[in-house]
Amino acid sequence: VPAGLAITEQPLSASVPAGFSLALRCRAAGPAPLQYQWFCQHQSVCRQIPGATKPDLPITAQQTQLYVCRVNDVHRNAVFSDWVKVEVHQCVARGLPPQLWRGEPVMVLNPTEQRVEVGKPLQLQCAAMGVPAPSYQWYRNGNLLEHQKKKKLWISHAKVSDSGTYLCCASNSHGEHWTNAVDVHIGEQSQPTSALLSTGKIALLVGNNHYQHHPNLMAPVKDVFELRRLLEQLDFQVVSLLD
Known about the structure:
The chain is mainly beta. The chain has 3 domains: 6-89, Immunoglobulins (Immunoglobulin-like, Sandwich); 106-187, Immunoglobulins (Immunoglobulin-like); 201-242, no CATH class. The protein has 1 helix and 22 strands. Keywords: Disulfide bond, Immunoglobulin domain. Residues 2-81, 105-185 form the Ig-like domain.
């Protein structure tokens, strides 16, 4: 960092519904005058935002993007702020966020009950809106899970001891919001029940001496008897009908 030039206030990430308006804020100190320039990145493409040359960047969130601010001093030294993420939730239930929303966490996705085999991965997920973006902390049976601090809980190889009741707390400087509590069941793979298989073989033979529409077609009774004898040798139960 150039001597005398420093970021004094970093912008903050946010998690908002589509169409929500907010401002990202960056402040710096150094040899005046200072020049600000904001950049955004979407799907690995970083671009300069035309006209975004003030310490505050007003935006109307339409898609999830990353933002960063560059500050130049009078000597053309430059320093960059931290990258921040504005996460946009495209599908939000009616009534969210509430009117007069101050940016406190509002849960928009709750985890669901899971049944997982021992050794298989366990995944629970939640999501909350908030300005600034909330941080997450997962709990099992009321006990804090030290390394589960993201909105997605992931256990690569579940154990029976991972069973229990899970919930997550989303919090920021304005407050906190808890997910619904959900039960997770970890157990051995259930053995498939034996299928009911039929072991008998039955053949139905119909022999006609007279045909109404095919007078020249004959199926003598003796042919049925011969076929019956062959099928019985193959362990068939045979039912023979005549006319």
